[in-house]
């Protein structure tokens, strides 16, 4: 095996990072460490490192994540609509309750039994119990709240109270 190459290689000394004695960058000293930290963070999310099995270094994708459903909250003239994504769940695995001025969506996603033989290299799907609470507006009629679940999507309808609807009136704007 030959070590000769046609590509020119040069090794130049790189200037040390950070402000040098006598330089005018003394007040920017924190940016060097910020840059190092940002590079370390981006390196941690490179896909090639997800599969590394280096002794002493924890695997990148095994940290515990808190399960929390993604929500949308929309307001209409007659009330509010909360939509929550709960993929892989059935209606009997989800609970919706109202108390202390909040609406709470909770449930539990069970782990699937292992069906494939072999070693997992990446597991991003999570399971376990979850809970998400949302502070309710004052004008919600708590006795008429309804929830519907279909295709992994929970829709909670929060109608406005009769008093809130009656207190709303349109004001005509006149041109001057």
UniProtKB/TrEMBL annotation:
Keyword Nuclease attributed: no
Gene3D superfamilies documented for this protein: 2.60.40.790
Cited PROSITE patterns: SHSP
Cited CDD domains: ACD_sHsps-like (cd06464)
SUPFAM superfamilies, alphabetized: HSP20-like chaperones
Keyword vocabulary terms for this entry: Plasmid
Transmembrane parts of this sequence: none
Residue ranges, annotated region (Disordered): 1-30
Stretches assigned to the SHSP domain: 62-176
Record family assignment: Belongs to the small heat shock protein (HSP20) family.
Protein name: Hsp20/alpha crystallin family protein
Protein species of origin: Alloyangia sp. H15
